[in-house]
């Protein structure tokens, strides 16, 4: 195989296997090339990944060592991605009765979701995460997009138990904005004891749902290492139940009468 | 930029933009290279993508022409992917009371999900699809994985209306296996009239849920171009409500007493 072909194959390989460690002999064998050639290939790919702002290839030395692709997203790329979203979200046609904002189309588009996932993954880049946790339904695509970049599984909390989940742990919690008692359910076998988790959701107002997820994680002796929400809303009552979180967007004001949406970048960019 | 660097950048670019058409001048401008060099790069990448069985770069000629990456997955790769899944699914520890099989961990792992998504996308490769449609909750990750490869949005049908969706269309249907009346809800603005859709779900037994989705699509004047389920179960009553579908896996027998799971490849491989 020529170097040019190998570069195409190896670029694809690293992109497909984020945060997985592979030894140099693995590539020597896979691409039937000399160790020195593979090393040069890795330098070229690493250089370009950094130049493009999509992460880097890092080398772990020693007997169990090798090379791995650590995805990242430059703040410049992240900024650009959020500015695009803000343009889309400003559209007054998105205003729903009650002052809610229609976002399902954005959450439904793999292109946006993948970009948002990369921004989150970059934001929680240094943490040692075992699972990305979210609650059905709207947070699911986001959670997968983040998990894909971090190379870890997703765990989905449900609102109702299902027979195909086996035995479950459930908690009741008070939804912050509606002040209703709600239930969250998670299959017992879905998380190993003592894991580190990252909580991801699409939207946060008073934070009751996020707080519920945090409580449920305690039942599994899991440590919440980070919390990320795509968008937060101004909470008039200012009795927010969660302090330490990252938001990518913030709805400053949604005015049903004037038909205007004011949306800015979230606290990650401050 | 050197050819070697350009190949890394362009490989990443095509993988990130499946089924999007870009003109040669776009690349000439983006990578500051001669048209002839870009053409050669495209030939190299196309050749390697085909060799790896992950699709090809196709050229559309004419004024509005250009190059696009059409992802595919060779049957060999698809077979390999399913054999890995079958090994995982055979584990008797997955048997749940009632003869159900625990699959949430597999559906939770981005690596498996992405591979399954690629197999589906290859299976429905030639169809002209506008949306991938699924129903909450378990089909969602699969739908996104397919949609990512096809480069189209996902539309999620819910079991219950939500205020953040705006006005909705709902239907009642009879679940095939439990014979209970259930509801499906979809936001009015989620699908344009006269669209072509691909229905994706994780599991099918009698097919009542899939049939319900098909009926709901009629309400939107949408044409169901294809139906894909990850796993189907033998339906004892043989009154399956859906005929024309693709399954990747088939649960032949789940024996709670003997604690055995028999699982084979689905009808896509026959």
TrEMBL record, chains A, B:
* Keyword line: DNA-binding, Transcription, Transcription regulation
**Is NAD among the key words of this record?**
no
In this protein, which residues make up the domain named Bacterial purine repressor N-terminal?
A: 2-71
* The keyword Transcription regulation is annotated on this UniProt entry: yes
- Domain (Phosphoribosyltransferase) ranges: 106-244
Q: Domain of life, per the record?
A: Bacteria
Single annotated GO MF: DNA binding
Q: Name one GO biological process term.
A: negative regulation of DNA-templated transcription
Q: Which InterPro entries match?
A: PRTase-like, PRTase_dom, Pur/Pyrimidine_PRTase, PuR_N, PurR_Bsub, WH-like_DNA-bd_sf, WH_DNA-bd_sf
Give the family this protein belongs to, as stated in its UniProt record.
Answer: Belongs to the purine/pyrimidine phosphoribosyltransferase family. PurR subfamily.
Q: How does it assemble?
A: Homodimer.
* Name recorded for this polypeptide: Pur operon repressor
- Species of origin reads Filobacillus milosensis
Gene assigned in the entry: purR
């Amino acid at each position: 195989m020529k170097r040019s072909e190998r570069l195409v194959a190896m670029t694809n390989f690293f992109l497909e296997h984020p945060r997985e460690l592979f030894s140099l002999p693995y590539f020597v064998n896979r691409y039937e090339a000399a160790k020195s050639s593979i090393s040069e290939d890795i330098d070229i790919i690493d250089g370009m990944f950094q130049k493009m702002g999509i992460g880097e290839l890092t080398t772990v030395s020693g007997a169990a060592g090798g090379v791995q692709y650590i995805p990242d997203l430059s703040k410049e790329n992240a900024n650009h991605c959020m500015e695009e979203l803000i343009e889309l979200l400003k559209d007054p046609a998105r205003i729903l009765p009650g002052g809610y904002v229609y976002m399902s189309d954005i959450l439904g588009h793999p292109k946006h979701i993948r970009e948002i996932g990369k921004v989150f993954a970059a934001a929680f880049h240094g943490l040692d995460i075992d699972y990305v946790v979210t609650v059905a339904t709207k947070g699911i695509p986001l959670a997968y997009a983040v998990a894909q970049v971090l190379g870890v599984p997703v765990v989905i909390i449900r609102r109702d138990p299902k027979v195909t989940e086996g035995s479950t742990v459930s908690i009741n919690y008070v939804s912050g904005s509606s002040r209703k008692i709600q239930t969250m359910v998670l299959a017992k076998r879905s998380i190993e004891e003592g894991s580190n988790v990252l909580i991801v959701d699409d939207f946060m107002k008073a934070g009751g749902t996020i707080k519920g997820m945090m409580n449920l994680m305690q039942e599994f002796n899991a440590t919440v290492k980070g919390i990320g929400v795509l968008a937060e809303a101004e909470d008039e009552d200012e009795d927010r139940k969660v302090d330490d979180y990252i938001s990518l967007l913030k709805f400053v004001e949604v005015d049903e009468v004037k038909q205007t949406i004011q949306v800015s970048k979230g606290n990650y960019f401050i």
